């Protein structure tokens, strides 16, 4: 039944360890401090650690020999030492020979000899003689440690230390042995060299110059405090809660500085108990402590946070991450942990972030120790060095990396660009004005035979292509690039399709070899044009929705760059489609090269198509091959010239002759050449006249060929609704003229 209290104690301890965060730093409370100043508390603790490590000890090693700091560290590297200590503790507990001092010295010596990470192994034995405590006189209480009415009877203390030479045996030293009154004189004389446990005025007992309870690895199990009910090792101000394994027999202390060796140490402390039939509490069964010391002086303090620069060090067994986030790097620089600094602050470097530079250091890297010193001087003396010397400055706009504030973006000649934009916008207004003029003179035959609807559609496409100059005017970004693609490709598609539909109608009519009627109205051509517009719209819409073009930087010199819209497979696919479209248009224009139409419109359209093809090929070569990296103003000039040569020349070729005839007053007359060849006013659906030297349904004596499809359709019925003042066609006269033509052909 005596084992049940021990079982309850172990279960309660295991539950507390499982509920605790293994590496959670302890709460640090300064006078007047609150829960919201954890960084300041860590800074104060870090300053204290740095002072101790650097030798700025003050009265530390005079008034006390140890300085413990509440810092959680990783103990994975000392797992072998812990297992060795647990094995020795189990062995002592099973043997129950804690009074065999020679055995104790042998065990602690073997612990140091067998494990290289153990610097010192220590054994302490004591009891709680309550009867002695009540009757002992001051002269008889030499081995009693009294504190707040609690008594610990110290019996034996010894430690084994690793020698400096790896070939020497560990040295064993007995720190204290309680002497009995019956011991012989030689033993008494020998024991006078050992430290005496003397009482103080407050009731505490000193072992040498240090109270036993002030030792970093010792905890009084018999204190009459609220924590005493929790059992041994309830003083969590000395011990880390750093293990979730309930099979561990002891606890690791917080790191502490030892003045005698001038090192930072950790101690693994294990309570060793002996079972007594009369024991009723865990305190009565506690007979001793087994401790092993390991050195942590080689560990480095990592003040950097959990960013990318410290990912590779967070799992390092030799890194202390308790102070993560306490670095003093500015927000314009990143903290990079550096090894080898040990237990001092400043073990890092501050490196300027991409896009920032240091005006004082070309490598833009600051030593953490210097940064820490400058930060303290700022707080103490209001020194401006920290903000002036260790703050990185932003690079010029567009610079990914830099060493100074030199510009990286190519300059824009805004007056020059504004002048070109003004000319382009003027042509937009001119195109809209021409649309109004076409509508005004739509009854004149020079516009009627050319289909005013398609002429307006052509001008609309030209205005959209001119608008591209407004889209590429500013510094390019995603909205500007999307507008550029839409205006360029949709404008080309509208303009080229409207011109090609008219030429294709002439080609179809020209190829008819029978005398039956072929009727192709403007409405039919618009219906055929809709699928072309739909394909272009769907493609551009999918492009914009799924992968909109963005602005990317291209170099125009060693360091200068500017933004240009990205080119990817969307552009390449659309360019290939437009090339095939141009090739088909050139083929159609070439097939009707000898067809004679009213006012030579087919010839003018063919010239415009050839011009568009040649211009686009030339400027695509400039853009991709000859001048791929010219400056932004030269790119804008090339775009302006391309637009003028393709769009303005198209307007001049298609609309120039028509408005010239209107200006000279011949816009409502058929040209003299068609009348001389005997073509009536009602001859052709598409304004076709005689074609020279080409095959047809009927061959004339003069070598001309009459296009068969146009002999039954009058000019006014070319798909446009008749105007109110149009004269009705004289069918009798038309039939007579047709008979005369046929008679001439038959007599040949």
Oligomer: single chain
Averaged pLDDT: 75
Please identify the structural class as seen in this structure.
Answer: alpha+beta
Strand content: 5-15%
Main sheet? 9 strands, antiparallel
Overall 3D form: rod-shaped
Measured between the Cα atoms of the first and last residue, the distance is 141 Å
Unreliable stretches covering 5 or more consecutive residues: 1-36, 131-150, 180-205, 224-234, 307-314, 675-729
The gyration radius over C-alpha positions equals: 50 Å
Number of strands: 24
Number of helices: 21
In short:
The chain contains 21 helices and 24 strands.
Structural notes for this entry:
The structure is a single chain. By secondary structure, the chain is of the alpha+beta class. It contains 21 helices and 24 strands. Strands 1, 2, 3, 4, 5, 9, 10, 11 and 12 form a 9-stranded antiparallel sheet that branches. A hairpin with a 5-residue loop joins strand 6 (197-199) and strand 7 (205-207). Helix 15 (478-510) runs parallel beside helix 17, helix 15 packs antiparallel against helix 18 and helix 18 packs antiparallel against helix 19. Mean pLDDT is 75; it is low at 1-36, 131-150, 180-205, 224-234, 307-314 and 675-729.
Based on the model shown, name its key terms:
748 residues, 21 helices, rod-shaped, single chain, three-stranded antiparallel beta sheet
């Amino acid at each position: 039944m005596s084992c049940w209290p021990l079982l309850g104690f172990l279960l309660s301890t295991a539950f507390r360890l499982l509920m605790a965060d293994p590496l959670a730093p302890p709460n640090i409370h300064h006078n007047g401090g609150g829960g919201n100043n954890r960084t300041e508390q860590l800074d104060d603790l870090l300053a204290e650690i740095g002072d101790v490590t650097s030798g700025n000890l003050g009265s530390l090693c005079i008034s006390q020999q140890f300085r413990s700091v509440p810092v959680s560290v990783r103990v994975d590297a000392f797992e072998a030492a812990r297992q060795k200590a647990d094995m020795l503790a189990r062995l002592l507990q099973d043997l129950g020979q804690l009074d065999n001092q020679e055995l104790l010295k042998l065990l602690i010596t073997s612990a140091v000899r067998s494990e290289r990470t153990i610097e010192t192994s220590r054994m302490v034995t004591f009891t709680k003689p309550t009867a002695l405590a009540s009757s002992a006189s001051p002269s008889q209480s030499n081995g009693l440690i009294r504190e707040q009415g609690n008594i610990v009877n110290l019996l034996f203390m010894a430690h084994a230390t690793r020698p400096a030479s790896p070939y020497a045996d560990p040295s064993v030293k007995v720190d204290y042995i309680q002497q009995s009154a019956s011991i012989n004189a030689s033993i008494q004389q020998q024991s006078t060299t050992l430290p005496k446990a003397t009482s103080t005025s407050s009731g505490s007992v000193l072992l040498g110059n240090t109270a036993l309870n002030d030792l970093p690895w010792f905890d009084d199990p018999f204190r009459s405090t609220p924590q005493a009910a929790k059992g041994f090792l309830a003083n969590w101000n000395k011990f880390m809660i750093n293990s979730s394994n309930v099979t561990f027999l002891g606890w690791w202390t917080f790191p502490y500085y030892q003045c005698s060796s001038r090192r930072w140490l950790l101690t693994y402390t294990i309570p060793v108990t002996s079972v007594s039939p009369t024991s009723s509490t865990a305190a009565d069964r506690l007979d001793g402590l087994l401790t092993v010391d390991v050195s942590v002086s080689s560990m480095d303090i990592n003040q950097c946070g959990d960013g990318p620069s410290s990912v590779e060090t967070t799992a390092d067994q030799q890194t202390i991450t308790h102070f993560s986030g306490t670095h003093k790097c500015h927000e314009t620089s990143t903290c990079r942990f550096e090894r080898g600094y040990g237990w001092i602050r400043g073990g890092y470097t501050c490196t300027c972030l991409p896009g920032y530079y240091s005006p004082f250091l070309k490598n833009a890297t600051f030593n953490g120790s210097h940064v820490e010193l400058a930060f303290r001087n700022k707080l103490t003396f209001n020194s401006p060095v920290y903000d002036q010397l260790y703050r990185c400055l932003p690079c010029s706009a567009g610079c990914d990396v830099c060493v100074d504030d030199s510009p990286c973006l190519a300059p824009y000649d805004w007056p020059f660009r504004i002048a070109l934009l003004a000319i382009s916008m003027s042509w937009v207004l001119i195109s809209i004005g021409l649309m109004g003029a076409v509508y005004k003179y739509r009854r004149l035959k020079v516009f009627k035979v050319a289909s005013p609807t398609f002429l307006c559609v052509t001008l609309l496409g030209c205005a959209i292509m001119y608008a591209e100059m407004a889209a590429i005017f500013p510094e390019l970004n995603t909205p500007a690039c999307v507008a550029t693609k839409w205006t360029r490709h949709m404008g080309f598609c509208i303009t080229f399709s409207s011109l090609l539909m008219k030429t294709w109608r002439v080609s179809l009519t020209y190829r008819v070899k029978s005398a039956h009627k072929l009727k192709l109205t403007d409405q039919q051509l618009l219906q055929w044009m809709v699928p072309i517009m739909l394909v272009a719209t769907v493609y551009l819409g999918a492009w914009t929705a799924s992968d909109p073009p963005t602005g990317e930087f291209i170099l125009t010199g060693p360091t200068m760059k500017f933004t240009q819209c990205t080119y990817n497979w969307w552009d390449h696919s659309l360019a290939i489609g437009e090339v095939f479209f141009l090739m088909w248009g050139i083929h159609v224009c070439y097939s009707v090269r000898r067809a004679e139409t009213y006012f030579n419109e087919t010839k003018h359209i063919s010239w415009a198509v050839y011009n568009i093809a040649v211009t686009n090929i030339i400027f695509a070569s400039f853009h991709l091959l000859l001048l791929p990296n010219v400056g932004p103003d030269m790119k804008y000039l090339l775009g302006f010239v391309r637009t003028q040569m393709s769009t303005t020349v198209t307007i001049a070729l298609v609309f120039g002759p028509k408005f010239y005839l209107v200006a000279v007053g011949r816009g409502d007359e058929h040209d003299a050449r068609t009348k001389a060849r005997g073509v009536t006013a009602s001859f052709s659906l598409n304004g076709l006249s005689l074609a020279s030297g080409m095959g047809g349904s009927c061959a004339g004596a003069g070598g001309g060929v009459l296009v068969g499809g146009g002999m039954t359709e009058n000019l006014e019925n070319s798909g446009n609704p008749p105007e109110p003042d149009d004269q009705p066609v004289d069918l009798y006269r038309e039939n007579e003229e047709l008979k005369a033509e046929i008679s001439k052909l038959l007599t040949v």
